[in-house]
Amino acid sequence: MKRLLFLLLIVLTVAPLSAQENVLTVVAHDSFNYSDALMEAFEAETGITVQVLRSGDAGTMVNQSILSKENPLGDVMFGVDNTFLSRALDADLFQPYESPALADVPEEFQVDPEHRVTPIDYGDVCLNYDTAYFAENDLPLPESLADLTKPEYKSLLVVENPATSSPGLAFLIATIVNFGEEGDYTYLNFWEDLVANDVYVSDDWSDAYYAQFSGAGDGTRPLVVSYASSPPVEVYFMETPPETAPTGAITADGTCFRQIEFAGVLAGAQNPEAAQQFIDFMLSKEFQEDMPLQMFVYPVNPEVALPEIFTKYSAIPEEPVTLPVDEIDAGREGWIQAWTETVLR
Question: What is the pTM of this model?
Answer without folding.
Answer: 0.85
